[in-house]
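[SOLVED] Predicted holo structure with flavin-adenine dinucleotide

Edit: marking solved, answer below. Original request kept for reference. I posted the sequence and ligand SMILES and asked for the 3D complex as structure tokens.
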Amino acid sequence: MIPAAFAYERPASLDEALGLLARNGDAKLLAGGQSLLPLLKLRLAGAERLIDIGRLRELRGIRELADGGLAIGALTTYRDLLDSPAAMRYRCLAEAVPGIADVQVRNRGTIGGSIAHADPASDIPAVVLALGATLVARSSSGERTIPADAFFQGAFETALRPGEILTEIRLPGASDSVGSAYRKLAQPASGYSIVGVAAVVGRQGGGTGAISMAQVGVTGVGDVAYRAAAVEAALVGSDGSASAIKAAAAHAADGQTVASDIHADREYRAQMAGIYVRRAVEGALAALG
Ligand SMILES: Cc1cc2nc3c(=O)[nH]c(=O)nc-3n(C[C@H](O)[C@H](O)[C@H](O)COP(=O)(O)OP(=O)(O)OC[C@H]3O[C@@H](n4cnc5c(N)ncnc54)[C@H](O)[C@@H]3O)c2cc1C
């Protein structure tokens, strides 16, 4: 449980952190440490140098955008999210965060750390996929934005380039004309998702009209969190009845190599994917009223 020796830097500003990262290609960023430190202690990962960005106030906090959306700093902790009425208006986020780990991890773990780490069983990737979030990355040569559905590229692999820091997560405005929900089958010891599903769904004219939009993010099932495109296509234009949702949910794992491990074998996990997609979509429609 003792990590190999590493150099440690604690920059006082984002610019200083970006400069350090640009000069030290072998360095790893440390945010809340809830994934990285266990990996280092177990020697499943190594780092020559850690750049501790965990105390950069400029990357922490939540602000409302002029277009009605929300900008969440990458170092915003799960606890901060739970304390923010603006963040908790996004029901799928409000339902996902309390189920992440335990109170100690939620006090230190950051939304940006979860997204940048891209663990195939983490909850937040499914939420930002379903919400159609935009991720902001900065390097010493500038800033760029990456849509969530282009960000997660494989297990622990993202679209971040060397020298980039994820700085902000932008959510589109929370609207009363769409409902959202998060449902998960949790691994009982850690809380990680065996299957986790975020759904954002709207109906034409609100009430009982046909389904006009559906965005479904799934985690825990494949080698990386993904948008369930076949489910979304089957839902849009349907009447949103129980049978239509069940038929759409049957496509939950389409195109995925379904994971198999000691907690859930491939067949069970694939079946649970369908069930939890159905529950999340039903929850999102119920939230619409
Ligand atoms: C006991 C336990 C139970 C857990 N259960 C759950 C669970 O139920 N659900 C769940 O989703 N997660 C769970 N987690 C994981 C936890 O949510 C993540 O570890 C955490 O959110 C990652 O954020 P962090 O700030 O701790 O990142 P760190 O551990 O500091 O960093 C993780 C990785 O991301 C990189 N990184 C961090 N921030 C940035 C950034 N801004 N820009 C670029 N790269 C960055 C780091 O270099 C590192 O490679 C659990 C963890 C533990 C220890």
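OP edit: The longest helix spans residues 266-288. Thanks to everyone who chimed in.
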